[in-house]
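Support request from a user on the community tier.

User writes: "When I paste my structure tokens into the form, the page sometimes reloads and wipes my input. The last time it worked, I copied everything first. Here is what I submitted, just in case something in the input itself triggers the reload:"
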């Protein structure tokens, strides 16, 4: 799963009870002109638009929520909408997030029309998390990586976890919200590029684990065909500098998701070495 989180700076979340088609946003029934402006704004600022809804059957309230999660700033700004045009207020927030809540939002992909795996594996995870954090949990549309369902995205820090089940999801999220990531379940952080995500996970495995924001930045340099040298700047229990060698590998073709019409080969990122140059010998 290493390095499979979407590399985005902001998330636009729009409460929508469904049903969701394969293209959830495009077939939401929201006026096309409004959707076009919202999607353009999120893409212009390195974002992703997702539909969200509470787990389980919900009454269709006329007033719904929207939110902009600023992964870089670590805040979430909330608003409400009744008419489609009300959503356009989010465009200004996407362009210049004013800061807001730091309370966590837990997204669980349950987009069954996109891939059945997400509904079959995601909904039990959403239900389990909602029992523990009822105000924080939302089912969401496609976040990428259907083959890793159940998928959970923690906002506003933008951390992706995968292969979660009902039994282990609560413990994983509880540890994360307590300030320590769970490397075994990590897909990556949306703050980083996929190659840097793989390096960061290796740093947590080798020297931590640390917190979700303890890898502060990454410099990625090519080291040949599908090979990279990544230098991470860190804080917390991780060394101040961590260097990792990463290479891409291609798996044999297989049916990767429940919906897959044919076998395809997936690329994965493998860390061949991770080290802390400034660490004392033997550490």
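"...and here is what came back when it finally went through:"
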């Amino acid at each position: 799963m290493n390095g499979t989180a979407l590399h985005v700076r902001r998330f636009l979340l729009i409460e929508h009870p469904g049903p969701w088609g394969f293209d959830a946003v495009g077939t939401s029934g929201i006026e096309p002109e409004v959707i076009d402006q919202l999607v353009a704004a999120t893409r212009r600022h390195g974002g992703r638009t997702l539909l969200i809804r509470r787990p389980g059957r919900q009454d269709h309230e006329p007033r719904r929520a929207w939110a902009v999660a600023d992964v870089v700033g670590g805040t979430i700004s909330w608003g409400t909408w009744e008419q489609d045009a009300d959503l356009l207020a989010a465009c200004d927030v996407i362009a210049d997030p004013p800061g807001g809540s730091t309370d966590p939002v837990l997204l669980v992909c349950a987009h069954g029309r996109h891939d059945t795996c997400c509904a079959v594996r995601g909904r039990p995870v959403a239900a389990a998390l909602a029992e523990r954090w009822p105000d924080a949990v939302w089912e969401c549309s496609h976040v990428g990586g259907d083959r890793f369902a159940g998928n959970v995205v923690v906002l506003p820090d933008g951390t992706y976890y995968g292969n979660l089940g009902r039994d282990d999801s609560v413990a994983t999220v509880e540890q994360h919200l307590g300030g320590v990531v769970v490397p075994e379940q990590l897909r990556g952080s949306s703050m980083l590029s996929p190659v840097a995500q793989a390096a960061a996970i290796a740093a947590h495995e080798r020297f931590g684990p640390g917190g979700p924001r303890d890898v502060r930045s990454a410099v990625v340099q090519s080291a040949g065909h599908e090979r990279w040298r990544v230098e991470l700047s860190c804080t917390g229990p991780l060394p101040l500098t961590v260097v990792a060698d990463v290479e891409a590998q291609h798996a044999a073709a297989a049916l990767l998701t429940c919906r897959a019409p044919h076998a395809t080969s997936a690329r994965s990122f493998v860390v061949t070495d991770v080290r802390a140059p400034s660490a004392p010998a033997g550490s």
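Agent notes: The reload is a front-end session timeout and is unrelated to the input. The two ends are 28 Å apart (CA to CA). The longest helix spans residues 116-132. Escalated to web team.
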